[in-house]
Amino acid sequence: MPDRSAIGLIYAPLGRDAQIASSLLREAGMRSLTADSLSDFVASLDDSIGFAVVTEDALRFADLKPLSAWIEAQPSWSDLPFLVLTNRGGGPERNPAAARLLEVLGNVSFLERPFHATTFVSIARSALRGRRRQYEARLRIQELNDGERRLQTAMEAGRLGAWERDLATGTLTLSPTCKTIFGRLPEDAFSYAELIGCIHPDDLERVEAATAATLETGVDYAIEYRTIWKDGSVHWVEARAQVSRDRTGKPLKMVGVSADITARLEAEEHQRLLNEILEARVAERTRELEEAHRTVMAEVAQRERAEEQLRQSQKMEAIGQLTGGVAHDFNNLLMAVLANLELLRKHVSDDVKARRLIDGALQGARRGASLTQRLLAFARRQELQVGPVDLGRLVVGMEDLLQRSVGSSVVIDTAVPDHLPLVSADANQVELALLNLAVNARDAMPDGGRIRIRLHEVELRDAAGHLACGRYLVLSVADEGHGMDEATLQKAVEPFFSTKELGKGTGLGLSMIHGLALQLKGDLRLKSAPGKGTTAELLIPVSTAISTEADIETAVAAQGGLGSGPRRILLVDDDVLIAMSSVDMLLDLGHDVVEAHSGQQALSCLADAPPFDLLITDYSMPGMTGGELAAIARARHPKLPILIASGYAELPAGTTLDVARLPKPYTQDQLALEIDRLTASGAGG
């Protein structure tokens, strides 16, 4: 069937190259468009172009500035593939001019004439596959941006119970917390008509007027009104919202938050009545009034503290849910990035520069994976992998990365003593914490300066706060920046608090580091003063365990190493991008792979012959989860080994099936080791 998703753009003004290329693409089921001039070629470039075919002769003496400008202006997700037809190949030895085209075009493949039609079509299809992956990346980026906008709106409104109203369909979506504000259970259905129906009749006109004003003028929606629950009780609700619009300014949805303020208003009314009584009695019983006042006020203060703690707990729960969802989706994207980079690295083993670039990309992607793990930990969706860590080696190994991260205007001065003991920590999270502290220090010195990183051992002989007695390593990061006053210092580790400009920081860095320190049974201490810089000290307890590297090597040797033979594997993942990457890794390991994109499709495959040696499935899938699929597959094929891949550290409550687990994102070596372990033992758990 002809491919209608993208177009091959051809610019070959000399000879019959354009006609031949167009004919070959048409026979292969790919659409094409031919440009008569370079200006027409550049004008035709847009997101619908899947790849471009040009001849070296047409570009050799042309002004490539307009083409170069278009390439540089591509959005972050786009890297248009170019197929250049040349008479002398694309290597610098035979064709020095090709280097100029490589520099201008970027993503380019050279095809030397005369070429075989099959080779041309194969390269064109490969370019189109790469372009499709870019389109997938564009969709994912848009989804992340949409999620970020929803999160930002909720934070600005002071999120408690979240809701969205689709203005086109009238569909109302509420969080479980928001449903309880209107007297419903979290699992109850609750439509917009039901919401309007539960508003107190005396307040309904005000609510509708406020909604209309928000939609017409764009002013923020902010109102307090009464609702009547199913049991007849009256409750006060405070609602705030903003309108989300498309690129043309058309309103799409209202996104907002609601809070039950009944207790607060009752307390205020109660206080008002008490004040009236106290004022009436002040003349005759001053002493009794003062005593009574000290006693209704203690009660009010206690109630207000309880209400504030409840609001904070609800807010952090809601933020954690959103953070965990976004981080899990980003984890899936990193899974595809890491898998493709690992496979690509194997195919450029002789290209030193390409290996260096790929290693850099892998390192960055792994940093991103570490960040998502920290976000999942913040959302209580991920556990730390704590073990003995050589903190001095870790700091020294990060020197190059830290210097690149802070830029040339900042000097990093590192002092790490020899023979330091190991600490009990998660190495990835400590690396991320150190990187965050260095970047914060750089941001505090906009004109440049010096960052001092120090490592030393201390021993606490007396318990201090939540710290137990014992030995600790102190990792300190000090800057020469503008510093913080005492009030700012007290708020520095609060979630989403930031001294940076809007859009320059999330306000999660120090909060995550503080949370990490507490999880490691350590502490984060900040010292600062205006004009005198800031020093951050991360205390981590010294490990009482030995390094497990030798144990790991022994375990691998006991298994006989990796690669015990090809297996027939059924891989199930509803995300096409993740499935494609995982299949490529399995094929590269020499396995025979069948791919399915749903639980039902996987069950159909399991019913076919020949039998499979292993089932690998994602957990979070629509229709049928990986846990449900595993339960059915285990019942039908009791001896089939099963491996569930998930971005969360633990499967949801109620998942009792004994199966093996592989956390996302995983490497090819981790995948190979787990496959060998499962298939060698012949067990699924």
TrEMBL record:
Identify the residues that the record assigns to the Histidine kinase domain, covering every copy.
Answer: 325-544
Indicate how the chain sits in the lipid bilayer: Multi-pass membrane protein
Q: Predominant location of this chain?
A: membrane
GO molecular function ontology, one term from the record: phosphorelay sensor kinase activity
Highest taxon in the source lineage: Bacteria
The broad enzyme category this protein falls into is transferase
- SMART domains per UniProt: HATPase_c, HisKA, PAC, REC
- Gene3D superfamilies from the UniProt entry: 1.10.287.130, 2.10.70.100, 3.40.50.2300, Histidine kinase-like ATPase, C-terminal domain (3.30.565.10), PAS domain (3.30.450.20)
Q: Name one GO cellular component term.
A: plasma membrane
Keyword Protein transport (UniProt)? no
Q: Where is the PAS domain?
A: 147-218
**Annotated coiled-coil segments of the chain:** 275-316
**EC code(s) of this entry:** 2.7.13.3
The residues covered by the Response regulatory domain are 568-679
The record lists the catalysed reaction(s) as: ATP + protein L-histidine = ADP + protein N-phospho-L-histidine
* Keywords for this protein: Cell inner membrane, Cell membrane, Coiled coil, Membrane, Nucleotide-binding, Phosphoprotein, Repeat, Transferase, Transmembrane, Transmembrane helix
Indicate what this protein is called per its UniProt record. histidine kinase
Q: What is the originating organism of this protein?
A: Pseudorhizobium pelagicum
Q: What is the lineage of its organism?
A: Bacteria, Pseudomonadati, Pseudomonadota, Alphaproteobacteria, Hyphomicrobiales
